[in-house]
Design goal:
Length: 277
Amino acid sequence: MKQVRLPSGETVPALGMGTWMIGENRSSRAEEIATLQRGIDLGMTLIDTAEMYGEGASEQLVGEAIKGRRDEVFLVGKVYPHNASRKGMAAACERSLKRLGVDCLDLYLLHWRGSVPLDETIEGFETLQAQGKIRHWGVSNLDPADMAELVDQAGGERVAVNQVLYNLSRRGIEWDLQPWCVEQGIPLMAYSPIEQARLLRHPGLRTLAGKNGAAPAQLALAWLLNRDQLIAIPKASTRAHLEENFAALQCPLNAETIAELDRLFPPPRRATPLEML
Ligand SMILES: NC(=O)c1ccc[n+]([C@@H]2O[C@H](COP(=O)([O-])OP(=O)(O)OC[C@H]3O[C@@H](n4cnc5c(N)ncnc54)[C@H](OP(=O)(O)O)[C@@H]3O)[C@@H](O)[C@H]2O)c1
């Protein structure tokens, strides 16, 4: 498994698992749990969840999937912006830990920027860290101006990651946010890496994937995994999808394929506002 180094020096898998919209349907529950467990077996041990996902349903399902295997996984949780105050965050984190059935989150992210001042959110994170409830903290959906403001706050330089929308069809961050994060040594986490499956219908991607003997999802993920200091977190609710995605790690990308992907999905030519889903 390719690894990405966090600013603390700890490494995490470059290919993890998303869990948005998992745990919301009784009939698919057993397969979703089996899928997460298969992912752990394969080394995709970074699991991304959030209190928002199914209002706790995703955390509960993740808790069930990792029962007895806590030490094998790197658990990422997210706090709602309206809970990201000193008091609100302590209570939100406690609820998430309970639903997950764990004592500590490996990484706790601010889901997106809201009205709570960043310095108060940092203080909340650092208090939880001192109490041993979270090991690292980070942010999500913060644009370059937000990031500059964040690292300017006391303790803000300890941000571990920024999780943002990034895939072949959403390359805006390559203009400014990505180079800035590389320079600062802050890894990016790419969410919706296959654009919630919409990318897979792109005729050009389908043809190119076919030429490479790969599935469209594999090619889209291989393109992301080819980047340094980037973690991709595709969500799969079946073992068949998960295994197809895992095989992206073995999908070779030659210069010709990369050039063709740049033609089909051109890189940005100017700064654009950070996109969100
Ligand atoms: N921080 C944020 O604001 C934010 C926002 C969005 C997402 N996220 C995180 O990022 C994760 C991933 O993003 P996402 O769930 O939005 O979208 P995604 O991972 O780009 O796409 C998920 C969709 O693709 C399908 N899929 C997965 N593998 C496939 C394959 N090999 N072939 C065909 N279809 C496949 C899934 O179907 P099945 O479910 O049927 O397998 C699902 O419908 C989320 O689950 C969440 O953890 C974070």
